[in-house]
Amino acid sequence: MKNIDHIFWDWNGTLLNDAWLCCDVMNGILREREMPEMSMERYAEIFDFPIIEYYKRIGFDFEKESFKKLGLAFIDAYEQRRAEASLFEDVLVALDQVKALGLGQSILSAYKHDTLVRLVDEHGLNDYFHDLHGHHHIYPADKAPQGKLALENLGVDPSRTVLIGDTVHDAEVAEELGMQCIIIPGGNHPESKLRGLGHPVVTSRMEALGLLGLG
Ligand SMILES: [Mg+2]
Are 104 and 173 in the same domain? Predict the structure, then answer.
């Protein structure tokens, strides 16, 4: 991989170990509606962007209850339980390592921006990031536009940046913006799906840094 000037981390499933919580919260929504619950395998198989298609694959009938209402129910329930999710165990050591090397790092997330800012603060990570790039929509959405703006603001050559994420969407965004990409399967997508994308797949954040010559 080429030399790196700036690292973009995905948040959910890459720094925050919360795929299990997303599945569990959705199962609560399904139980309340007397619909069958999902296994973690099923969740990873059908979760994807755009989120509305994921909701359709779950089997929700938008005639009965709108996507908007269901999405808000999920967000409310996730918010109530968000403290149950922790960072992956090598997050702090990896962020420290990047900081010690004097490289810039930011978060590029499909998550709502103000929630992302609050969560990063709650996990005590404020001092690590040059910037946080979330979304201004309620629902998780395409993060390519935010990524494009972030690259422009930094004034960096996209090919000297890397997006480290856990989903197919991370690979698509990196390709669209000309960034390098490393995938760490975090539970939101099955490893089988991620291995076919043409980007390195590793098992930890420190392994990703090792691949970049920063380990
Ligand atoms: Mg993610």
Answer: yes
